Amino acid sequence: MSTPTQDSAVYSELPAGVKRQATQLKLADDVRDGSAYLSSFLRRHVAPRNLATAAAANDAHQVVLLDTVVPKKRPSSLQKKGRRQLNARERRGVDCFAASTARQTYRTHVPLHTLWRGYMRSLLQLEPSRALAADAQHRLLKADYHGCVLTVARSRCPSLVGVAGIVLQETRCTWRLVTREDRLVTVPKATCVFTFELEGHVVTLYGKHFVHRPADRCSKKFKSKATIDL
Amino acid sequence: MAAPLNFNSPKNLLVFEQSSFSNEKSRHKTVIGDHYFNCAVEVCSPNVAQIPTTVTASLSPSSYYIVRNLPLSRLIDKEFIEAFVRNGAFYAVSLNTRIDVANSVAVLPTGKLVLSVDKDMYETLGLEGRRSIFSQTRERKFVIEVELTKPSFTPGKKNYERTKWCFSERLNLRFDFVFTWVPHDKSICSSSVGKYFSGMGLSVSSCRAQMMSNTMKDVCVPDLLALNILENSQDLFEWLGAVSCYIDSEEEASNDFVSMYTTPSPCNICTQLTHAKWQGFFTPEAIAMVIDEIRLYLKTPDHPPWASVTVHGYADSPVSWRGKEHGYHQGGENIYTYIVFPNDNYWLYMAVGSHDVCP
């Protein structure tokens, strides 16, 4: 903070005309003397308690704030933790991962399917006239199916039989497919048997084996299931 | 200690009614008309040397057809429905399909296609149905019903196309059928359905009812006029069963090791008792005609005191009376018996097994 220079307008002498007519203008002597004015100003505007501490601080060469300071609210323990996360119900409410039902067309997802075919072909090392490799089952269990054209071959709910479409989304218990009629269908995994076709092979997937979160499925250690009854 | 074994006899039901054909509230017409699939008819009468020819004439010529490997998709062809299902009573039931272990199919004259399928078939076929009421706990069976004569069941409609797809592309279901057709228009020959199927290259054979007749001499016959029927109705039904099985129920035979059965009393010796049995596929119309002929016969001079007509339903048919669900369980019986008297009164027995609803 810079010290006020003597030549600034506030500290400058009153004009000579004003000084000459000071009595007519009823200007007190102490107005002309800054320190007297200041002390009277402080007495009028600052609480006597603060003024006493200020005087004490002045003696101890300390800086003191003369305003009445409102202490800031201390942060609560919840806010103290840092970034708060949504709980499960709030996350469901936000629904940020739900594929929107409107304007999902089969045609727009065909490139995704083409991409998936390439991925699956390289994953299984498929050749048209050869049988699937021995470890294909494990790879199929851990594979990503977004873009696959799945068909429901068998189901506990007969009206789902024959539903076919490109996988748009996978959840723990369902697959969401876009059908050729541009309908978004949610098919439960556990009660259905699915098939897909690739390079002349028709692969059957028992939905019951796929009831895991897709992120967990790729790193999970699988145990063989005793029955494949729906 | 071992748990006590439960040897309860299987539940079955015997319904007894007595009424008169002339009573306008008598329901004999619906009992006959609502029992669609009949595989055998028995006629029994005392004091006659042989079954009257009028009765024989009304049953013997009734021919039926057997078609092999008929695809179910043929039964839902619009052409077939319009020509036969709508213009007559088409009776068809799948042949050699045990209802408790296999899938079985029937077409009711009301224009309903009924499939009784097991769990695997139900899950693969893709047609909506409902759980069978007799398999709630153990093996799972399902009943699928398709209304053929509904106006909305027509090509281009969603339900029709789905059914067609399920029967032809999904699973190419084929069954052997025994069928017969009674056209509304009497000028049309009932063999046209057989012609229609053989025109598709299917093997269709025409069959006739087989008759077996037996006359027993000097046998003990219950005196129905002296019998208190309300107390002894079960005994009489049992005796009719014994006659139909040719069980020797003489007094001296009751000491026999094989059978200790005796005729219920009061009984008297008849010079002869005639029993005839036809096997084949009989429509309710044919049965109604037999009952009418028996009624006429009992009004002729030197008529017998009574005559009985027993009708056996198909044990493996998916339906019994009024299209209600039917199962096999222990015997799959669905039988009814009319005992007809000259004064137009009748006694009616209806017997069903455990997997059947009250007729």
Automatic annotation (TrEMBL), chain A:
Q: Which UniProt keywords apply?
A: Cytoplasm, Endonuclease, Hydrolase, Nuclease, Nucleus, tRNA processing
Q: Where in the cell is it found?
A: Nucleus, Nucleolus
Q: Which domain of life is it from?
A: Eukaryota
Question: By its UniProt entry, which InterPro entries does this protein fall under?
Answer: RNase_P/MRP_Rpp29-subunit, RNase_P/MRP_Rpp29_sf, RNP1, Rof/RNase_P-like, Rpp29/RNP1
Q: Which segment of the chain is annotated as a signal peptide?
A: none
The record's principal subcellular location, in a coarse class, is: nucleus
Described purpose of this protein according to its UniProt entry: Component of ribonuclease P, a ribonucleoprotein complex that generates mature tRNA molecules by cleaving their 5'-ends.
Xref: PANTHER family: RIBONUCLEASE P PROTEIN SUBUNIT P29 (PTHR13348:SF0), RIBONUCLEASE P SUBUNIT P29 (PTHR13348)
- Indicate the quaternary assembly: Component of nuclear RNase P and RNase MRP ribonucleoproteins. RNase P consists of a catalytic RNA moiety and 10 different protein chains; POP1, POP4, POP5, POP7, RPP14, RPP21, RPP25, RPP30, RPP38 and RPP40. Within the RNase P complex, POP1, POP7 and RPP25 form the 'finger' subcomplex, POP5, RPP14, RPP40 and homodimeric RPP30 form the 'palm' subcomplex, and RPP21, POP4 and RPP38 form the 'wrist' subcomplex. All subunits of the RNase P complex interact with the catalytic RNA. Several subunits of RNase P are also part of the RNase MRP complex.
Family, per entry = Belongs to the eukaryotic/archaeal RNase P protein component 1 family.
Which protein are we looking at? Ribonuclease P protein subunit p29
From which organism does this entry originate? Answer: Priapulus caudatus
From TrEMBL, chain B:
Spell out the PANTHER family in the cross-references.
RIBONUCLEASE P PROTEIN SUBUNIT P40 (PTHR15396:SF1)
Instruction: Return the protein name.
Output: Ribonuclease P protein subunit p40-like
Q: Name one Pfam family in it.
A: Ribonuc_P_40
Taxonomic superkingdom: Eukaryota
